[in-house]
Amino acid sequence: MKILITGSKGMLGNYLQKVLASNHEVIAFDKDDLDIKDKTKSLEVIKKIQPEVIINAAAYNAVDKIEESESDFELAQKVNADAPGILAEIAEELNIVLVQYSTDYIFAGNKKEGYDESDEAKPISKYGETKLAGEENVRKNCDQYYIIRTSRIFGLPGSGEGSKKSFVDTMLWLVNEGGKEKLDVVDEEVSAPTFAFDLANSTKEILESKQDFGTYHIINEGSCTWYEFASEIFKISNKQVVLNKVTTDAFPRPAKRPAFSVLNNNKFKKLRSWQEALGEYLI
């Protein structure tokens, strides 16, 4: 297949290129190469390339900035909501399959048993609102789509402007470079950590096996709080760190986070546990 990847310099974009390049022709663009917010230019470029698949790994996920800054919220609307709709229109016009990524933050976070693919979305942050709007625009504008929701992604940081370290790398940086011997970590907000490599591989398998179009939840199995996540990180890394359990009140943030946002994978094969995936990443 000829596959166009947008957001190529982000964490997931990097892994997608590595995973897909061995079997497929990959054209990878970041925002400096292709402005997916501009329909006219995007249509012109995509018509020339003629891909069979577009994978949109571009996103703006500065959750707290989006909440408190009108300019950041407007940017998030353009990147997370409008651009997927534009790509969906182009995909429909040119008979291209579209892959769009979404997030557990589209849910309210009050369902302890986890969220199924068909559950009603009720975001509690502006970031979640923009990601849900992106989903809705894709469904409205094209028929051949995969919306892949995921959560708490970790892996090697992307190389693009705005790319940030995952929670895993941030914790290790605080100890290795920051010299921290004690850390306060929130023992709340239950979700499923997901290795970007596994997410990229699953995307590849979904495309190659021609799964039914629709919405999927792709996450590593199991769930944890941030404290439990940090405990496993330092256990695998063999780092002696004193971790103190705290509530979310210890770290006030502008945007609300879902308290329980585990995504239930009911439509695709189960992935390995997040602990096993984390072990592969760290060792």
3D structure, described in words:
With 283 residues, this protein is α/β, with parallel strands linked by helices. The chain folds into two domains: 2-154 and 193-217, NAD(P)-binding Rossmann-like Domain (Rossmann fold, 3-Layer(aba) Sandwich); 167-190 and 223-261 and 273-282, UDP-galactose 4-epimerase, domain 1. 40% of the residues lie in helices and 16% in strands. The protein has helices at 11-20, 39-49, 63-68, 70-94, 126-141, 167-176, 196-208, 226-237, 274-282, and strands at 2-6, 25-29, 53-56, 97-103, 145-150, 153-154, 182-186, 194-195, 214-217, 242-246. A six-stranded parallel sheet has the order 2-1-3-4-5-9, sandwiched between helices. Strand 4 (97-103), helix 5 (126-141) and strand 5 form a beta-alpha-beta unit. Helix 4 (70-94) packs parallel to helix 5 and helix 6 (167-176) packs across helix 8 (226-237). The protein is globular.
